[in-house]
């Protein structure tokens, strides 16, 4: 009787370990950070945090508006510098201390990117830098104004 009980427990333990073993070594998808929006979040650009950065372009990709929320949690005002592509057009945004500038909101217009070239549906590599940081490269999506909530942001 004891042998049967021990054998049943051993089989049960083996079954539990083999059916849950995969989840023990696989990363959990809910722990992987991602941008839950159309744009991308940019971390490491300096004291300023860039959230939901995207470009709304016209149909042929010859004009684009930069849209993002730029957060300054510091006691000093800072300037965000963004360069689109290597040696491409740049935009700068001054953000006062302890505030957020939301480009493309009711209070702030999106920033027109002079000399922009990028088709909707693609990504543009952009260099973000603020404060004394070295800055960081990020991939920024280019969208069109076909969606209702983006149509007012299109050039």
Describe what you observe in this structure:
By secondary structure, this protein is of the alpha+beta class. Helices cover 18% and strands 38% of the residues. Strands 1, 2, 3, 4, 5, 6, 7, 8 and 9 form a nine-stranded mixed sheet that branches. Strand 2 (48-57) and strand 3 form a beta hairpin. The mean pLDDT is 87.
N- to C-terminal distance: 81 Å
| Order of secondary-structure elements | HEEEEEEEEEH
Strand segment count: 9
> Could you say which structural class the secondary elements and strand pairing correspond to?
alpha+beta
**Integer-rounded radius of gyration:** 24 Å
Q: Could you report the average pLDDT, rounded to the nearest whole number?
A: 87
Note the total helix count: 2
Helical fraction equals: 10-25%
Task: Describe the secondary structure blueprint for this structure.
Blueprint (H helix, E strand, L loop, with lengths): L1 H24 L14 E3 L5 E10 L6 E9 L5 E7 L5 E6 L3 E5 L7 E3 L9 E8 L5 E8 L4 H4 L4
Summary keywords:
about 160 residues, alpha+beta, 9-stranded mixed β-sheet, 2 helices, elongated
Short structural description:
The chain is of the alpha+beta class and 155 residues long.
